[in-house]
Amino acid sequence: MRILIEEYQYDVAKVKDILHGIDALENVEGKVSIHYVGYYYNTLLKDCVFILPKVLLKDVDGKELAFGKYEPEDIVSPDKNKELEVQEKDFLYKFAVWIYRAIVVYKNDKRNDTDIVYHTKIAQIGKGSRRLSNTYLDILLQLLQFNKDNQSFFFFIIKNLHSGYNKINWTRTISRETAIVQGEQPIYLKPVNKRRQINFDEELLVIFFSILNYIGDTYGFPKDIKCQFQLIKGAQFKTYLNGYGRTRLRQIKYKYFSDKALELWNLCYAFFDEARQVFVSTEKKEYLLVKSFYIVFEAIIDDLIGDNPLPDGMDKKQEDGKIVDHLYTAKSLIESEASQTYYIGDSKYYKMGHPLGSESIYKQYTYARNVIQWNLDIFNRGDEPKSGVRLRDDVTEGYNIIPNFFVSAKMDEAFDYANDGIEKTDRQHNRHRKEQFKNRLFDRDTLLLFHYDINFLFVLSLYARDNTSQKVEWKRKVRDKFREEIQDWLQDDFDFYAMAAKPGVDARQYFKTHFQEVLGKTYTPFADNNIFSLALDKEDPEENNEELMSELERFFIVKPCKLGEKPEPIIEEARKVVGGIAPAPEKDGVLMVMMENYDSKSKSFIPTGKIAIGIKYTKESLEIVENLSTIGYVLFHHRNTIGQHLFAIKNACNVVSSGDVEQDRYKNVNTTEMYLSVDIDTSVELDSSMLDSTKKGYTPKSRYDAQYFTMELLNK
């Protein structure tokens, strides 16, 4: 067996014979590199050559070393390298199997680009001249081929084994068992069957099919076991792998005389024997190679992480020509139950420790912008996406967070296939943030990017086994991990709060009025759309976090609420403490102002908040004057529950004469001698949906007059 590593620059002189029969690129300095991954048979050397992925290479002091220890030229012939550890040699033998299986699975998936795969028949057993060396892969393939080609042989043996198995031995039955006589006929309740001697043909088949079962479970090869033998599995089979298999096969070898049985014995023994002594007849050309292995790696990650097809009808190839590698929908980072968002991934097939390029980062930001626009286009057409994802919030005009992430391959130094090893990359940077405006997490132009490393051996083996249930289970696990860890990272940079409008506050109007201050800092992600999320950068780049919080707390309940935490209990508990109707319970009085054509008239006083309400010497006006100190609100209405507008009053109301009303203060009427001077807080319109202005009675003469009432009595 010979080992080459993809894209490594070899000296031509050192590998010329090994490259016989395969295209390689030679540069002017006498270096050569191979841009394939896979397996081929070198007819010149009569030996197998494995081209392994470049993830085996690690940069150490400017040198690319296999396992971070050996120059690739030194492990071309692993059997001749005395420095290679036993574990490392065993890894090279078995790693080649995983590469083979992964390429086969990729090739069999019709969704993939199979033009990059080059394949001709591999390894057949026979009596021809033996190869220089046989690999673990050779043995496995030969075992599988033997099973495929010899179904009639197995059927004959099994049928012969079971012939006579249930025949009764009457001599032993009569001598050992007591008969019950019925109708002058003896009946034996426990007849003795004829027993066979230990059948070594059966034992050999049990060992063979147990091996097939093992390589099927371990590497994902199709088992195709058509027998009812009790197979050797689990811990018992491990004893066979650890030496008992060879021992037991040597003990029963002399029992076999047919060519087929001996051939099967040799194959089983070769499986357990590290020397791999078996005869192979090989065609002149034999290979399974894939060009541009990064495409295969992308297919692996996409199969194990992404959605296929892409959600909401998105095309993998976008309109600008860019290709989205991995895209799926999952739980939003904020909402812990119903809300979903898009997760955008990109796989990077690098050598160990290779840094992330700026071009890759820029492309990933572009993917995010394209996905946002795709979602917006669906709603602009009047449609609903099947995923239910809505990235833009119409109330706050904020955008949901779209997690972007890279997944890079790394090698597990202990050669562990069972541990996914997924973690934040230890490369130079493991997270990136691009933003147009500081401290606006929920802005369309705030884009996040995270970088993970993953154990290449784990994903390779999981993909190669092609076990649907195993893949589904891990997909769920890794998606949850991405979500939880990205949440943790964001909470390192931002403080998150849940916000709910205080009673009487119209949240929609507040966000509309204070658009500039809260845009990109607030979002409506929760199941209860009356609760909002607030995110503030801990570094406070604008130096106004404290000021903004103080302003928001005038009109909203604002409480810390971590990403993924349910806000309802937090807000409910806070409401018990806050209570009442803003701005203060002691000012429960309402100045009711009859005003038709509010939309046009309000333009004269909303900008300044200054208004003068005409009053007369009437019962209604006297009631207003008597309760001036309790008035906390002004309600504009037209004797109807529709078209009501409620505002808080900032300062105490004053009674002034017509001549003392300031020029910039709007008069609601011009026919009275006395006015009530009122300063309205027009920064936010309060919620009047629970008020009913018709509850205050009037006479035909007082229909257009201002009146006094209380918030309690107005409440529906």
Question: TL;DR?
Answer:
The protein is α+β, with helices and mostly antiparallel strands. Helix content is 33%, strand content 22%.
What does this protein look like?
- With about 725 residues, the protein is of the alpha+beta class.
- It is elongated and about 125 Å long.
- Helix 2 crosses helix 11 (about 455-465), helix 6 (about 200-220) packs across helix 8 and helix 9 (about 295-305) crosses helix 11 (about 455-465).
- It contains 19 helices and 32 strands.
- The chain starts with a strand and ends with a helix.
- Can you give the helix content as a percent range? 25-40%
Q: Compute the number of strand runs.
A: 32
Shape, principal axes of CA atoms: elongated
Give the structural class.
alpha+beta
Strand content: 15-25%
Q: Give the overall average pLDDT.
A: 85
| Gyration radius over CA | 40 Å
- Outline the low-pLDDT stretches: 125-130, 579-585
Separation of the first and last Cα atoms: 87 Å
Largest sheet: 8 strands, mixed
Specify the number of helices: 19
Overall tally of structural domains? 5
